[in-house]
Every structure is written in C-alpha cells, then in structure tokens.
Write a structure and sequence with these properties.
Blueprint: E1 26-29, H1 39-54, E2 58-63, H2 73-86, E3 92-95, H3 100-112, E4 116-119, H4 123-132, H5 143-156, H6 159-163, E5 165-168, E6 183-187, E7 201-203, H7 205-215, E8 220-224, H8 231-240, E9 247-251, E10 254-256, H9 263-271, H10 286-291, H11 296-306, E11 313-315, H12 317-328, E12 334-335, E13 337-339, E14 344-348, E15 356-361, E16 371-376, E17 379-382, E18 394-397, E19 401-411, E20 414-422, E21 434-435, E22 438-439, E23 445-452, E24 476-483, E25 495-498, E26 502-508, E27 516-521
Parallel strand pairs: 1-2, 2-3, 8-9, 10-11, 12-25, 14-20, 18-21, 23-27
Antiparallel strand pairs: 4-5, 5-6, 6-7, 13-24, 14-17, 15-16, 17-22, 18-19, 19-20, 23-24, 25-26, 26-27
Helix pairs in contact: 1-11, 7-8, 11-12
Bound molecules: adenosine-5'-triphosphate (ATP) and magnesium ion (MG) (2 copies).
Length: 530
Amino acid sequence: KTGGKKETHKANFEIDLPGAEQGKVVTRFPPEPSGYLHIGHAKAAILNEYFAHNYNGKLIIRFDDTNPTKEKVEFQDSIIEDLKLLGVKGDKVTYSSDYFDLMYDLAVKMIKNGDAYCDDTPQEKMREERMVGDASVRRNRSVEENLKIFTEEMKNGTEEGLKNCLRAKIDYTALNKALRDPVIYRCNLTPHHRTGTKWKIYPTYDFCVPVVDAEEGITHSLRTNEYRDRNPQYQWIQKALGLRSVEIWDFGRVNFVRTLLSKRKLQWFVDKKLVPNWDDPRFPTIRGVSRRGMTVEGLRNFIIAQGPSKNIINLDWSLIWALNKKVIDPIAPRFVAVLADNVVPVKLLNGPAEPYKEEKPKHKKNPEVGVKNVIYSSNLLIDQEDADLVEGEEITFMDWGNVIISKVVKEGDVVKSIEANLHLEGDFRKTTKKITWLADTKDKVDVELVDFDHLITKDKLEEEDNFEDFLTPETEFRTKAIADLNIRDLKEGDIIQFERKGYYRVDVPYSEGKPAILFTVPDGKTVSKY
Ligand code: ATP
Ligand code: MG
Ligand code: MG
C-alpha cells in the first residue's frame, strides 16, 4: 500500500445475526441476471459477504434465474465480473434453475397436500379478488383436477395450461395481502438461457426463494425490507413443505438522490440511446461509478459505514464521493493541465534559453507515488482564469518560483499574452496568487475533460411520478485542455489530480494525434447545474 495516512474503516456497527454461530453461518447474494449490478446490489452483496466472513461462514452467489423473459447470459457474465471487481468472493456459485426439478416436485407435493390450486381467473379479476379478499371460484378444485392441470396442461404449456397459474392456498381473507393465495408457478414459453425449452413453467420469486434457501442450507436470508410483508408467506411455504426454516434478516434499501436504481428504468435509458450502455459514467451501476472514478475501497468503506440501517434512505452522492476522495487523495499523482479555450501564452524574458527537463515527485507528500518529468521553458501557457494580472505584479509559478509581470496584452477583457521576468529570489510566502503553468513545447498533450450531471432533475421521485418527465436536458460537458507530457504514459483507469482543478480518471488513454479523455471524479462538492 502506498503511504499517506491510511484510514482503516472498521465497521461502525456491531450487530449480531440472531442465532448465528461461528463457523455455521451461510448467507447468499441472489441477483437476478436481468441487468448489471448497481450500487444497491453492492450493498446487498457486501453485507452478505461481511456477515459470512465475520462468522467464519460461507457465502453463496445464487443467480435467481426464474424469469426467462428478462434474463440473459450477458447479464450473468457481467455480474460475475462485477462481483470480482468489488472483491466479493462467493464460496460457491449456484442457480435457482438448478432446482427446477426439485421445485416442480415440491409444487406437486403441495397440490397433493391440498395446499395449492390451479387458477384460470383472468388477471384483472384475480387482482380485484385479492384487493377485496374474495375467494377464487377455482379455490376448491379437487386434488385430481389440480394435478391434471399442473402436470399435463401447465407443464406442457398447452392452451389450457397457459390460462392457468398455480397458487398457494393460504388465506384469501388475510389482513396481510401477501398471504392472499400468492401465485407460485406460471407458464412462460420463452426459452431459458440455461435450461432452454425444457420447462414451460417457472416458479415465482415467492416460491423459489424459501425453497432454495432451505435446500442450500442458508442460515440467514438477508432481504431488503420492502419484502417484510412477504416474510410470513416465506415462512408458510417452508412450513407447508416441511423444509428447514431460515432466519430472515431485513435491511434497508439504499437510494440516491436524482438516481434510478431500477433495472427496468435503466434499461429504458439504454434502449432510448440516452446513454450508450450500462457502463455509462452517469449510471449507478458498479461499472458506471467505477468509470467515474469510484474505487472499490471507497465503495466498500461507504457500505460498511452505512451498516445495516433499516431505514430506506435517500442518500446524497456527496457522501460516497467524499469517502472516495480520502482513498484517492493520498495516492493520486499530480499533473498540470490548462484549459485550451483562450489559453494565455506567457513569455519569460529572462527564462532558460532552451527548454530543459527535471525529475519531480508525482505527489509532494507521498514519495512512493514516484517521479515525473517537468519541462521548464521560457514559453509557457496559463489559464485565462489566472491571467487577470497587472504590470509590476509579483506572483508565484507553482513549483518553480516567483515572477514579476512586465506586460499584459488584452483585447477587451480577454488576456491575449503576457511577458514576465523570473524572480527566483522572491519569497513565495509573500505572494497571494500561486498559479499553475505548462511549458509550451511539442511535448504537451491534448486532453478532453468530461464532466457529467445526474440523469434526473428531481431529488426524490415519488411513486406517482413518471421519471420520463424529469430528464436532465444536458448531462455531459466536454472541455478541451492541454496537459503535461506525463499524460502520454497514463493507462485506462488511472486516477490523477490536475493541480488546482480536481481529480480525473483516464477513460481513453492518449494515442498519437488523439486527445486523452479524462472524466472528472466527483469530490463530494460539485453540485448539479440543474
Ligand atoms: P432492481 O429493482 O434493480 O431490478 P432487484 O431487487 O429486483 O433490483 P435483484 O437482482 O433481485 O434485483 O437483487 C439482488 C439483491 O440485491 C436482492 O437481495 C435485493 O434485495 C438487493 N438489492 C437490490 N436493490 C437494492 C437496493 N437499492 N439497496 C439494497 N439492496 C438492493
Ligand atoms: Mg429481484
Ligand atoms: Mg426490484
């Protein structure tokens, strides 16, 4: 690890999983392969891992692949890679689809026990009966009839089968609507990305999770607490089937201001080409925030610091970026860039006759970051913003020395050029203006600096809001700049600081004739322009 003051982020919560024993805890992270992992999933994944490891237990990564309409191999592969990127290692990777035979047998068992029935009530009507607490007319079908429909019609996806679903016979009048005979199996003729066309019926989430959790020996099932109403249903299914009961442990979902965390909505942005892909730096996906300059350490520190809070929180991004800054600041090498727009040439009248190079530390407080080349020349460039100077004024050129301005050429308010004399015996502690400069030699490198805004203009979208009504009109801001020669050597993913400008992550490294593209890493201070 490279120097600086290394912060060790210990979890600020000491929480016990009820009934947990050292060496015996088994948790699982169950993503559906229907999109890329986002920062909310990261919370679930990291918490599951945290508990598994704290108790010396096991973590299972389980692909919850029970809906072929939404799932793809592409998503599955990306989830594996992103978990690796997050440093979340499962002891085992499993698939809900590994248990299709088992779940089928258990569904048949439920029918035989009189605990499930086939229902062809049209969806609308079923929803209405649920709302008011009416029984379905099919609720008292005989075991034989139910078996015939489930094992012959539904299983084969026949016309009759497609009209039916299988429902658990719990309590159609229950106060908790989740107990009003939930659907546990439904037909789907779409081929499944792992089991192909073998199955035409698929278990629902409500049936699959309690069965597979029990089967896999999960001891603690971590779920976001929007499922709390469904906990009794989960327990009912395990009990009805005589399965092991599993402890449910809820935690709060994370939400971020001006951010969508629904895979369906994120897919909409991709489909509408509002962003090129799921790894877009404006997306809250693991890939998106990584491209934006979030480090794994920053992300993990953030999640552990949040802890297992049960509140559904709407977090501000500045929190997480401020934590990330603590990680990158001690190790990000420092370079120089000036904005190309109205850049101001400075001539040092008594400067070096020829440009020369010197080795300097990349980070003044952390020598382990290494050294870079700095070119000194009589022809320099400075930012227009720094060029508001008057003749006779003494200022400091950072990491070089003082200069005295001798001539300022302006057109209107715009400074066109400056002449100055080096005054190296001057005291830099006595100047108020300390500015960055860049040697104007052929070694300098064109760069493009890109900053982004949130995709959404409203801090917190309500249930009744249509997110399409709150799209930020402009979310990408490109600025041309000129940087020092060291930028040629940077690789994709490198995080640096341009002195007095901020932190940047290299998205596209420099190649001859093409500018390097760097994304601004938010530092927790920037605010939306909208
Ligand atoms: P989405 O709404 O984005 O499709 P999901 O909950 O349907 O999310 P899953 O792939 O089923 O996505 O989620 C895997 C795990 O991640 C689940 O345990 C889920 O509860 C958890 N999870 C998803 N979103 C969040 C969030 N915003 N905060 C915390 N945990 C989350
Ligand atoms: Mg889900
Ligand atoms: Mg969801």
